[in-house]
Design brief:
By secondary structure, the protein is an alpha+beta fold. It folds into 2 domains: 22-37 and 98-182, 2-Layer Sandwich (Gyrase A, domain 2); 39-97, no CATH class. It contains 3 helices and 11 strands. The protein has helices at 80-87, 110-115, 164-176; strands at residues 30-35, 39-44, 54-58, 61-67, 70-75, 92-95, 100-106, 132-137, 140-146, 154-160, 180-182. It starts with 29 loop residues before the first strand and ends in a 10-residue tail after the last strand.
Length: 192
Amino acid sequence: MTAATTPVRRSPLEGAVTRRAASAAAVAPVVLAEIWPLDKHVVRGLGDAGTAGRVVDDGPVAVWRLQPDESLVLFPPAEHAAAARHLDGARSTTDVSSGSTLLRMAGPAARAVLAEVCPVDLSASAVPDRSIVQTMVANLRVVTARLDVAGEPAFVLLVARDEARYLWDALSEIGAAHGLVHGDPVAGAVPA
């Protein structure tokens, strides 16, 4: 008989090169950081058609309503009990935690950086705060949620784990001209 073990969580961005100290992030025009660790579950069968394309918060749980009948439920690893009401009773639930990565790009220049690698209009009028768009970013399929932070534009990008390093590097390269700095990982926090 073997003892139960806790899975080892490793970031796909472990060892990524950063250009500046994270302490500069407080005054940077754009900050790129990973949101990690965070459990992610695709849920079908508990949708709310009235909130499709929106992010809905429920305490420590964020529910990204991707389509009328499909949601992505995000929560810190220790918050399974809080997430249970969004997971229990669903037609299907799939844990995609190990297959995807979340990056946050925040600051006054965040939209300008994304405009160089995303064909979708991400202006405030086209994509208001708490909206979700599924689009291409740097030639990758990305689910993007606009989740402003302290009145500044912020975008959370959900990308496949094996493409996360490429997206990180592409955004870092494009963002350098806009004053991008790398922030410390946002550990176990729901994007809000």
